[in-house]
Amino acid sequence: MGKGNDWPAGLAAGFASRLASRFASQFAYAVPVVAGCVLLSGCAGFMGQQDKRATAQLLPTMGSQVRGTVSFVERSDGVQVNYNLAGLPRDSDHALQVHERGDCNAADASSAGPVFAPAADRLKPGVRVEGDLGNIHADSNGVASGFIVAPDVSLDGVRSVLQRAVLVHREPIDPYAYPQRGTGTALACGVIRAQ
């Protein structure tokens, strides 16, 4: 016999063929499984957790020229409210508020109802309600652009601003003043819709 690996040629070829076939079939199953795992983990990392988003196109009320967009992005510390508005009186401050109803059909936006306050906070003197987002400032060109973080609202649940109206008012507001004074007439109104 010879040198130790003297298998008959046919037997060695058959063994090698079966070994290659078995390896190929296991490899054929393993490749898609590994590739699928890599793709899914890559997509999850690429996509990340999607932020909830909404936007409102504000149109002028009767006699006003104010228009623009207000967008909402839910973050861990609240909702970031980005605004870009034009046509405001120059060098002026204005209240930005979410109102109860997503209805801007009235010429003066009164169809939007009262300021959004899901808790009974509106009944307590000196307490800021959730719909009072804050005041915005128009520059010397009548443009207001920036953002506010609103920690007391969300884009789902009982404190959701979706399908409500966002209004820009003629006057600024002091949310802690008592008795609360009005914010004047609305200059623009838009319905908040999910993106």
TrEMBL record:
<keyword id="KW-0472">Membrane</keyword>
<dbReference type="Pfam" id="PF00080">
    <property type="entry name" value="Sod_Cu"/>
</dbReference>
<feature type="transmembrane region" description="Helical">
    <location>
        <begin position="27"/>
        <end position="47"/>
    </location>
</feature>
<comment type="similarity">
    <text>Belongs to the Cu-Zn superoxide dismutase family.</text>
</comment>
<dbReference type="InterPro" id="IPR036423">
    <property type="entry name" value="SOD-like_Cu/Zn_dom_sf"/>
</dbReference>
<feature type="domain" description="Superoxide dismutase copper/zinc binding">
    <location>
        <begin position="66"/>
        <end position="192"/>
    </location>
</feature>
<keyword id="KW-1133">Transmembrane helix</keyword>
<dbReference type="InterPro" id="IPR024134">
    <property type="entry name" value="SOD_Cu/Zn_/chaperone"/>
</dbReference>
<dbReference type="InterPro" id="IPR001424">
    <property type="entry name" value="SOD_Cu_Zn_dom"/>
</dbReference>
<keyword id="KW-0812">Transmembrane</keyword>
<protein>
    <submittedName>
        <fullName>Superoxide dismutase family protein</fullName>
    </submittedName>
</protein>
